[in-house]
């Protein structure tokens, strides 16, 4: 074989090895979501790639047969083709035996380097950069090769499956998409600048609807504006003026005996018609949705959908009212800082290392603000005030503090046993164990 023929053979072997490298990496790196988009756009080859990903055994068997066969042939051809030329060039300066040895090593290094660079590194980098496009390009040729080498493919695939079963190894790829996968994808998108940080937070909040209880978004009992059934016209008008809301619970005697709710629009309609406001009129009352405080926000949304309401009263296991929640409260939780209520923010960052936080702030929001994974005894409370009570094992007083996770939680203001404000400060050195003062 002449030098030109040998070099041409080596080039063809490198091209064949590159093809198998591209086939291997592009299939493994192809994203099923992108492939399905290509199918929708009319590319039938993308459908073939998806089916191959579901059963990749025969495909990778062909790849390995091709890669190993080409590598062996490359070594044989390269050694036989180039070693004599290198040895001949070195003979004038070296002894014949030494020239033969050095010629062999030079041929080996050159052929190996060409295969590593052109048949391995470069094709695999291209395959990682454009996996779907390259996967569909090689899908048909790989299908033909699978049919051509069917007996060998069947034999090696059968042996590989038996060995995997013997070792207890999985043979089918798990393509289930979990919420963690989606959140990781959103985080990668935010880091790449494709997704805004606030948009990423909205998506994260949506997934948290299944884990956050309704208590984290409700209006607390002591902040509920409500009417008694026998309130006179003047009291109703005064309360609407002092506490303007869209919906008011109506109670019989006290807040724990809710008989319905009244929509502010119905009251305004009567005012415009110069009619007296009386809640004894059943025509004004609407049936109220009562939900337990253990429901998640996702479950509350489902309740709203089923009864076509956007307002609910929250009760505990003793049938005592603990708060009210509206559809707007739930959506505000999802939207976070994009669109928020006109009330004061519950978490105010004072500087690089300190925050002023309302005691009724949901613990999930506190964790987000402080970038903490969890707080101790998380199942026993839902707000920052609850965390302090659990850690102190008593009703907190002003200046009480708890240290955990490198932060100091100090009570600044208490109003009738209710924790109003908490100062959270980042400590210079992270505390290893919780401390209470």
Automatic annotation (TrEMBL):
Keyword terms, alphabetized: CBS domain, Cell inner membrane, Cell membrane, Membrane, Repeat, Transmembrane, Transmembrane helix, Transport
Membrane-crossing segments per the record: 6-29, 59-78, 98-122
Single GO MF descriptor: flavin adenine dinucleotide binding
Domain of life assignment: Bacteria
Domain CNNM transmembrane: 1-199
Main subcellular location of this protein, as a coarse class: membrane
Subcellular location, record wording: Cell inner membrane
Membrane topology classification: Multi-pass membrane protein
One cellular component term from this protein's GO annotations in UniProt: plasma membrane
Chain ranges of the CBS domain: 284-342
UniProt record similarity statement: Belongs to the UPF0053 family. PaeA subfamily.
Function: Involved in cadaverine and putrescine tolerance in stationary phase. May facilitate the efflux of both cadaverine and putrescine from the cytoplasm, reducing potentially toxic levels under certain stress conditions.
Protein name: Polyamine export protein
Organism field: Paenacidovorax caeni
């Amino acid at each position: 074989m002449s030098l030109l023929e040998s070099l041409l053979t080596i080039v063809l072997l490198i091209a064949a090895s590159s093809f198998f490298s591209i086939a291997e990496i592009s299939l493994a790196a192809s994203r099923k979501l992108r492939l399905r988009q290509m199918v929708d756009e009319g590319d039938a080859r993308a459908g073939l790639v998806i089916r191959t990903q579901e059963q990749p055994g025969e495909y990778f068997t062909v790849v390995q047969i091709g890669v190993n066969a080409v590598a062996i042939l490359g070594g044989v051809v390269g050694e036989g083709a180039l070693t004599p030329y290198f040895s001949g060039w070195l003979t004038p300066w070296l002894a014949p035996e030494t020239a033969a040895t050095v010629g062999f090593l030079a041929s080996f290094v050159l052929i190996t380097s060409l295969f590593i660079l052109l048949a391995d590194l470069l094709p695999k980098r291209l395959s990682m950069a454009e996996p779907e496009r390259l996967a569909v390009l090689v899908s048909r040729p790989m299908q033909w090769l699978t049919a051509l080498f069917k007996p060998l493919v069947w034999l090696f695939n059968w042996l590989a499956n038996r060995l995997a079963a013997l070792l207890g190894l999985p043979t089918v790829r798990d393509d289930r998409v979990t919420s963690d996968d989606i959140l990781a994808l959103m985080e990668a998108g935010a880091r790449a600048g494709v997704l805004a940080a606030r948009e990423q937070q909205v998506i994260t909040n949506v997934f948290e609807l299944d884990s956050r209880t309704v208590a984290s978004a409700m209006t607390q009992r002591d902040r509920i504006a409500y009417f008694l059934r026998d309130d006179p016209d003047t009291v109703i008008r005064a309360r609407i003026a002092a506490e303007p809301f869209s919906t008011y619970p109506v109670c019989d005697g006290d807040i724990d005996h809710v008989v319905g709710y009244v929509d502010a629009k119905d009251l305004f309609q009567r005012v415009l018609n110069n009619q007296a406001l009386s809640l004894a009129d059943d025509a004004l009352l609407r049936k109220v949705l009562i939900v337990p405080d253990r429901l998640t926000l996702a479950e509350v949304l489902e309740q709203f959908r089923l009864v076509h309401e956007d307002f609910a009263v929250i009760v505990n296991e003793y049938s005592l009212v603990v708060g009210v929640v509206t559809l707007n409260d739930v959506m505000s939780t999802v939207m976070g800082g994009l669109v928020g209520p006109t009330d004061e923010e519950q978490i105010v960052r004072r500087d690089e290392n300190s925050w002023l936080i309302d005691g009724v702030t949901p613990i999930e929001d506190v964790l987000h603000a402080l970038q903490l994974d969890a707080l101790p005894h998380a199942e026993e409370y839902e707000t920052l005030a609850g965390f302090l009570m659990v850690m102190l094992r008593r009703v907190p007083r002003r200046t009480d503090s708890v240290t955990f996770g490198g932060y100091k939680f100090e009570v600044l203001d208490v109003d009738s046993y209710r924790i109003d404000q908490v100062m959270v400060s980042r400590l210079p050195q992270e505390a290893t164990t919780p401390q209470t003062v």
